[in-house]
Amino acid sequence: MLAGLLNRTLIVPPARLGRGIGWKPKGQLFSRLEWLRALKDFANRCQPPTPSKPATYLLGTKCEEYRHFATIRWSELHNIATLDNDVRFRFVDFVSPTKLQDMLRIDAAETYTHTDERLYDWYYTSVLQGKPFEFVKSEHLALQQRIAGTLRYRLDTPLGETVKGIVDYLGGTGSFMAVHFRNADQPFRKMLPSNMEMFLENMIMAHAFLQYSSIQLEDRMPQHTEQSIRVSKTGSRTMVYVATDHRDPQREMSPLLPWFEQFPCSVILDDLPPYSRL
């Protein structure tokens, strides 16, 4: 949005596919990303356990991480071309301040890098201090809408076709819902109760809408009242796939237990047999 408003070129590094690295100090984060992107003989350095090679049983964490890592251009995820008239893009295949400075022929003194002062500093800023920008002009709002539309994931690429195949495997479009609860870190754990309540209300409304839409008999169409919506949440048979970092979300006293009480057909990864985990 800023690149479009300020008429600047947006330099876009590759998107990272795989397990998250997690929060790290800036120097450690860039070092890890550069290490992952570097070409190495991992076929020899990270061999599977072999009886004749005792060293292969000492699997380094970096080897395991490398096997769950890949990069892809953002244009493979979103149809960026729809914004060609609004924003200038330059895609690069690295995540490195040093390489970026070399490419632009600038030095560290000419580079500003935002540094968080604490874990999830960006989250505290956005939640506690409100939105950093408010757009009021019609042309700015229109650009905002075009960007939002572009950021929908593509389904006409190999990755998109894979995603569509997973959705079809799980029941098909419109046959289930999904929700993600993050619990391990602050401030997500602190906000879990309020987020839970909000998600429950949103899911109840969505479930009620789907139920009402499927009824064709006009004389039996239920009224969109609070009472009818509350009734729909009891014994709901909506299939919901739940992603969470909570170790045991269905145990007694779990902060996520209210969700499973309202949506008993919720499924977590541990509910699926190993052979079907995609």
Helix content: 25-40%
| Strand content bin | 5-15%
Unreliable stretches? 126-130, 214-235
- What is the distance, rounded to the nearest whole angstrom, between the alpha carbons of the first and last residues? 35 Å
Number of helices: 11
Number of separate strands: 7
| Strand arrangement, major sheet | 5-6-7
Whole-number tally of structural domains: 2
Gross morphology: globular
CA-based gyration radius:
23 Å
Explained architecture:
The chain is α/β, with parallel strands linked by helices and 278 residues long. The protein folds into two domains: 2-150, no CATH class; 170-276, no CATH class. It is built from eleven helices and seven strands. The protein has helices at 2-6, 26-37, 42-45, 61-67, 97-104, 121-128, 138-150, 158-169, 188-214, 226-232, 257-262, and strands at 9-12, 15-18, 69-72, 88-91, 177-181, 240-244, 266-267. It has a three-stranded parallel β-sheet with strand order 5-6-7, with helices on one face. Helix 11 (257-262) links the parallel strand 6 (240-244) and strand 7 (266-267). Helix 9 (188-214) crosses helix 10 (226-232). The chain is globular, with a radius of gyration of 23 Å. Residues 126-130 and 214-235 have low confidence and may be disordered.
List keywords for this structure.
single chain, 2 domains, globular
Furnish the topology, listing elements before pairings.
Elements: H1 2-6, E1 9-12, E2 15-18, H2 26-37, H3 42-45, H4 61-67, E3 69-72, E4 88-91, H5 97-104, H6 121-128, H7 138-150, H8 158-169, E5 177-181, H9 188-214, H10 226-232, E6 240-244, H11 257-262, E7 266-267
Parallel strand pairs: 1-4, 5-6, 6-7
Antiparallel strand pairs: 2-3
Helix pairs in contact: 9-10
